[in-house]
Amino acid sequence: MRIEIDDLSRAEIHELLREHLLNMREVSPPESVHALELDKLRCSEITFWSAWEGAQLLGCGALKELDHSHGEIKSMRTPASLRRRGAGRAMLAHTIEVARSRSYERLSLETGSMEAFKPAQKLYESFGFTYCGPFGEYTQDPNSVFMTLYL
Length: 151
Description:
single chain, 32% strand
């Protein structure tokens, strides 16, 4: 598996992000969907990666710089048909490594509170993320769970 910085131009990425947004809108109320549209991922404070096995897209993830010491995980996604192959774990490990190399003191994320998000929560817990309150521009929301990892 190779993980590379992605310029968000390939059709495979567009389709995976479309799947991601559709799924978030299916399982979360509109006001609680915090997944970013393609154009919002194209900004200087976000680094976006894709994971590949040959020509097959296995997943994606992004790191948003909130300030010089705090980053946020965004757009973690594995195609539904390719889950449980290690791409999510590899992407998360890569993101944490980059956050450490940038000397971030903290890495945080928002995910859903519903049953559909439990596997993601378990993955983050396995890397040492703990539950916390809202950070950045988020506010308390019963449909959101906030997690953080002190680096």
